[in-house]
């Protein structure tokens, strides 16, 4: 049988087949952050003499609450620090850190064909490099640190081919939100999503990471893109081990469990109106007439409302979905010389992204516009530390989840691309970058 | 193992783990005490719990436990006495996390959820993989054979620990 890219990675990591379509899968790299790792660290310390299978196969870091906000999170960070120190792990503390899915490729830990697991649902981000990367629970992560394997049910493979090319005003975020809406909020459950086609090849690595990042929002185990010359160029700057990075490809006539084809030119900029990422609509459209009542009630919206008439209270650019340098450049282009009309937070995905942005002067553009330019962390995305929003306030956000309460109890989240967040921040309502330009064109 | 008892009926679709336990409570280094936060991210969630104080089986809708990988969601429901979740479909990570913590994930056809949500008592025979609403005829469901031992007896980490020599041999052969 002709094999998909996913099949090849899976089959090269099977230690043992198990009943029920399961296998013991070798994990090349475990990523451990301070929120979901402490329990497993403690279990291994107490039950297994603090023994790790291979300390070289763990990268640890502080990202969710960085720096600590209170005693409890300081204890989490301290536990991770002392664990990393006693095992001589690769460790990225505040000052040298970033959101795990941003910093792990940036520091050269990711190469095509790897399996990567982390107690964080957005680990699929790293599939952008032709890896099988997935989120797991704390116990599974403990198992992977102890024995370097996961018990996994082999997912089916869905080929998502995006043909043609995306329009100039359309981003990877719009594409992935469209894919989630197309296959359904749980339409990817039990699948790995293999992204292919000319519109995928045209995406930068930052954009591919955005795409793969949100595969989980369709329920998928993971998402992945085949490595190509862009992957190789990225890796050439981050890793000391140059090799034939693009060798790993799906067979030309690989068989898939499901094939979905999307015309890239048909994808439009979208914004969510509801309480899951699949509940989105074109930014030039309206809240759909068949919208779920429960979602509308939570969001304080009515069906038929024009998306661009929705006033916002706050804006946020950041998160593992859209906080890389390409995202910040796109936002800065919209914000340059303009001023925000609602409180706006911009949080780079890593220290390296922050420093690069500052070398390019993006921080001045943002701060001249009146936005808050912060240090790197997961920030307000999950309502865990700085930037939590108040009940019934409305934020347009470059993040990944618009679940009820996600960014703060009762808060209302509209997901969008960084460009749309920037334009919305300026106009105080959901807006396209072109609306900002149009406003400028009107004589005073 | 038999799980039997009162029902917590919240049969709506897409109850994500942020609703089961908001991230602001993920600040511990152990898995204790999460029950006090169970369903605090869901509007009216604590009221539902208060109306069903003896519940041991949560009846949920499609795609239960979607979103964040936080195992805290299972620790939270287990912390209020939930020993099984009956739903038409589970999000993958939540499903795996249930097995790890002795919370029985029971997948039944969506058409049966209304009946299970209305039951006074649900009885689950875990070994034999049957689930029963009140005195209705028991219905078959399937557990993942690779994970069934862990939901019955725990021991996941011990199992993997025992595999280490085999894993090292595999890794050596690969290199």
Annotation, overall tally of beta strands of chain A: 19
Distance between the termini of chain B: 43 Å
DSSP helical segment count of chain A = 15
**Broad structural category of chain A:** alpha/beta
- The percentage helix of chain B is 25-40%
* Structural class by helix and strand composition of chain B: alpha/beta
Describe the biggest sheet of chain A?
5 strands, parallel
Largest interface: A-B, 65 and 50 residues
What is the number of helices of chain B?
Answer: 7
Low-confidence stretches of chain B: none
CATH class of the largest domain in chain A: Alpha Beta
Overall pLDDT level of chain A? 96
CATH topology title of chain B: Aconitase, domain 4
CATH topology category name of the largest domain in chain A: Aconitase, domain 3
Uncertain stretches of chain A: none
Any guess at the CATH architecture of the largest domain in chain A? Answer: 2-Layer Sandwich
Offer a quick outline of the entry.
The complex is a heterodimer of chains A (444) and B (175). Chain A is of the alpha/beta class and 444 residues long.
């Amino acid at each position: 049988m002709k094999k998909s890219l996913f099949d090849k990675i899976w089959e090269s990591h099977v230690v043992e087949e198990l009943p029920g379509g399961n296998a013991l899968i070798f994990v090349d790299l475990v990523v451990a952050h301070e929120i979901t790792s402490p329990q497993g660290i403690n279990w291994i310390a107490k039950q297994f003499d603090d023994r790790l299978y291979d300390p070289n196969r763990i990268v640890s870091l502080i990202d969710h609450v960085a720096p600590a906000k209170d005693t409890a999170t300081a204890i989490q960070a301290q536990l991770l620090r002392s664990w990393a120190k006693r095992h001589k792990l690769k460790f990225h503390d505040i000052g040298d850190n970033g959101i795990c899915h941003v910093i792990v490729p940036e520091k050269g830990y990711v190469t095509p064909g790897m399996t990567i697991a982390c107690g964080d649902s957005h680990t699929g981000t790293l599939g952008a490099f032709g890896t099988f990367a997935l989120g797991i629970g704390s116990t599974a992560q403990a198992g992977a640190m102890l024995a370097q394997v996961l018990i996994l049910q082999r997912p089916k493979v869905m080929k998502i081919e995006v043909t043609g090319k995306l329009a100039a005003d359309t981003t990877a975020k719009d594409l992935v939100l469209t894919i989630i809406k197309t296959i359904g909020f749980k339409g990817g459950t039990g699948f790995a999503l293999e992204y292919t086609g000319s519109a995928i090849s045209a995406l930068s690595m930052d954009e591919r990471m955005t795409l793969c990042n949100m595969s989980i929002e369709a329920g998928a185990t993971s998402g992945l893109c085949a490595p190509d010359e862009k992957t190789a160029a990225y890796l050439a700057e981050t890793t000391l081990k140059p090799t034939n990075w693009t060798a790993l490809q799906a067979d030309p006539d690989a068989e898939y469990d499901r094939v979905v084809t999307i015309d890239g030119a048909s994808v439009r900029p979208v914004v969510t109106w509801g309480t899951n990422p699949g509940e989105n609509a074109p930014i030039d459209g309206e809240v759909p007439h068949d919208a779920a009542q429960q979602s509308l009630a939570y969001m304080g919206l009515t069906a038929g409302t024009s998306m661009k008439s929705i006033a916002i209270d706050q804006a946020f650019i950041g998160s593992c979905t859209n906080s890389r340098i390409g995202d910040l450049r796109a936002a800065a282009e919209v914000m340059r010389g303009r001023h925000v009309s609602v409180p706006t937070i911009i949080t780079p995905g890593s220290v390296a992204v922050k420093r690069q942005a500052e070398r390019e002067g993006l921080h001045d553009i943002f701060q001249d516009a009146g936005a808050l330019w912060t240090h790197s962390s997961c920030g307000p995305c999950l309502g865990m530390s700085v930037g939590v929003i108040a009940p019934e306030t409305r934020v347009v956000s470059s993040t990944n989840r618009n679940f009820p309460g996600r960014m703060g109890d009762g808060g209302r989240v509209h997901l969008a691309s960084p460009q749309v967040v920037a334009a919305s921040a300026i106009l105080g309502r959901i807006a396209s970058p072109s609306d900002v330009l149009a406003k400028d064109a009107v004589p005073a | 193992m038999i799980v039997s008892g009162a029902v917590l009926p919240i049969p709506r679709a897409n109850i994500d783990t942020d609703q089961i336990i908001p991230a602001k409570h993920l600040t511990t280094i152990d898995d204790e005490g999460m029950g006090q936060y169970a369903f605090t991210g869901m509007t009216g969630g604590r009221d539902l719990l208060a109306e069903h104080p003896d519940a041991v089986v949560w009846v949920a809708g499609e795609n239960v436990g979607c979103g964040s990988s936080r195992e805290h969601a299972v620790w939270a429901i287990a912390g209020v006495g939930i020993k099984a979740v009956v739903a038409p479909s589970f999000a993958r990570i939540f499903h795996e996390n249930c097995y790890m913590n002795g919370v029985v994930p029971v997948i039944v056809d969506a058409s049966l959820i209304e009946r299970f949500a209305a039951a006074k008592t649900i009885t689950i025979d875990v070994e034999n993989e049957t689930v029963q609403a009140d005195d209705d005829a028991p219905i078959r469901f399937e557990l993942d054979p690779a994970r069934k031992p862990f939901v019955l007896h725990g021991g996941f980490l011990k199992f993997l620990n025992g595999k280490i020599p085999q894993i090292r041999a595999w890794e050596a052969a690969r290199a």
